[in-house]
Amino acid sequence: MSTPPSLRGGARERLQHWLPRLVLSPSFVLVLFFVYGFILWTTYISFSNSGMLPDYTWAGTRQWSRLWSSWTWGIALHNIWVFGLLYIVTCTALGLLLAILLDQRIRAEGALRTIYLYPMALSFIVTGTAWQWFLNPGLGLERTMHSLGWESFSFNWLIDANMAIYTVVIAAVWQATGFIMAMFLAGLRGIDGEMIKAAQIDGAPTWKIYGRIIIPQLRPVFLSAIVVLAHLAIKSFDLIVAMTGGGPGNATAVPATFMYSYAFSRNEMGIAAASAVFMLAVIAALIIPYLYSELRESRS
Amino acid sequence: MSAGATVARRNTLGRALLYAVLAVFAILYLMPLYVMLVTSFKPLEEIHQGNMLALPDTWTFAPWREAWGSACIGLECSGVHGYFFNSIKIVVPAVLISGLLGAFNGYVLTKWRFRGHKIVFGLILFSCFIPFQIILLPMARVLGILHIANSTTGLVLVHIVYGIGFTTLFFRNFYESFPDELVRAAKLDGAGFFTIFFRILLPASVPIIVVTIIWQFTNVWNDFLFGVSFTSGDSAPITVALNNLVNSSTGVKAYNVNMAAAMVAAVPTLIVYILAGKYFLRGLMSGSVKG
């Protein structure tokens, strides 16, 4: 600058220079404190002697070994594995199938899409309440089948410790499939038609065109769908509380319900903190590489 | 161009089968909602005798009245209406404040970039994905220290803090594609930070404001984890009240009342979805696929 700005103009300029940062700072401070500060605090608690109240004396890995020797935690890990796998595979397969079917110039596409997607707008507590009633062993589906003439029909998964987790899978799939379908549908609409036309001219059958050309091009959508579903699965809490309350017994306990009960009913803060840190570590291992690649791609 | 449209060929039998499969799925998806609705209009005797899928022989609004005004939740027998209003008291300020903060953040992070803006965005963005179990214990203590534990005010704070990530993401991605030239020209004309935001960007932001409001509204209304962790009794939101109503083990289970209460909890988000499904879907998509 050739002429020095007046004092007033300088102050104004400095303000304009700092204003953006000033406007951003409340949010950033909130996030630093309530997210990263809290993560550090919880992590420290998982290495402390805390029980009902925080106790900041260092206890090494005591809480972690208590967590790992807990029978319920074992069940919770087993359940989240079974639930997560079935949930991801079923939602992805069903979502892809519905998307492909809807992509055939269907007349009522808009209405059908609305129907498949509406469960996503519901609270998991509503979904859980509805499905708990729907699958009620005495009065729900079972009774309905009997009254329709299928006398031997029996469906008591909800109160069967070995099967209850599968009822949660059914309800969760019902809720999320429409969303996965929408993701695949958007992917299908973005595929270049040239290669498909070329394959058709060569006389390739439809199933082959889908198997060899279309589905392989949906790879990024598969990745997004799997990350989203895995993330939802690990966080699942509401649906299980509403449908089974983690029962019968501990049969449908998952890490999120385990953490909640150790934190707020059993007053075992240390173990609860350790289980929460474990959940965060799993999600971070999943999300950070994904976000990194997504953000880098969008830059180029 | 859709892949299917290119592949599709005329084949009457195939088309009929296709529509049949789609219709079966549509029925399966609507079934739980249908069952909830018809159950909520049946007297209890009819539920104990009859078929879940049948329409009520005698229609009654009594279960809805009871769910709204007189069903017992814990020791309190005044239905879910108080909790419904709690949820509204939480949702409105939480959505507005987190939305406003997100809009400013998105604006700064795209049009007033400073060194380290990427790392700031990355740190804010990651907060969308943390499992909230990691913050439950310290948040319970902080709310206690601030004397807003067990209050709707406390839940407002919680929802603002953990809503910033998504609102910032939405606005940042939207403003990213807003032409820089317009902003630069305004700066040359001497327009300041807020003038540019309120005069130029905000009027063009209606779609993303709608997406953000719908997303935040749905998330906050449907929240259960924060509600059950940080409130009890009178200050609980509707989801917590619904769960307490349905899963309390005392007395005869009034399934019709439970279903009516579930419908009360579901209606606001369903209305939003039906009125603005397009924007709802857009929020879902940008919440999963970063851009």
UniProtKB/TrEMBL annotation, chain A:
Annotated membrane topology: Multi-pass membrane protein
PROSITE patterns given in the database record: ABC_TM1
Subcellular localization: Cell membrane
Domain ABC transmembrane type-1: 77-292
Matching InterPro entries: ABC_transporter_permease (IPR051393), MetI-like (IPR000515), MetI-like_sf (IPR035906)
Membrane-spanning parts: 21-47, 80-102, 114-134, 163-188, 209-234, 269-292
SUPFAM superfamilies: MetI-like (SSF161098)
Keyword 4Fe-4S set for record: no
GO biological process: transmembrane transport
Keywords from the UniProt entry: Cell membrane, Membrane, Transmembrane, Transmembrane helix, Transport
Top-level taxon: Bacteria
Keyword rRNA processing in record: no
GO cellular component labels: plasma membrane
Main location: membrane
Gene3D superfamilies assigned: MetI-like
Family named by the database record: Belongs to the binding-protein-dependent transport system permease family.
UniProt-recorded name of the protein: Carbohydrate ABC transporter membrane protein 1, CUT1 family
Source organism: Kushneria avicenniae
Lineage: Bacteria, Pseudomonadati, Pseudomonadota, Gammaproteobacteria, Oceanospirillales
UniProtKB/TrEMBL annotation, chain B:
Single Gene Ontology BP annotation: transmembrane transport
Domain ABC transmembrane type-1 stretches: 84-276
Annotated InterPro entries: MetI-like, MetI-like_sf
Keyword Transmembrane applies: yes
Residue stretches spanning the membrane: 16-37, 90-108, 120-149, 155-175, 196-217, 259-281
UniProt key word Transport: yes
Compartments reported by the entry: Cell membrane
Family: Belongs to the binding-protein-dependent transport system permease family.
PANTHER family: ABC TRANSPORTER PERMEASE PROTEIN, GLUCOSE IMPORT SYSTEM PERMEASE PROTEIN GLCU
The protein's name in its UniProt record: Carbohydrate ABC transporter membrane protein 2, CUT1 family
Protein species of origin: Kushneria avicenniae
Lineage: Bacteria, Pseudomonadati, Pseudomonadota, Gammaproteobacteria, Oceanospirillales
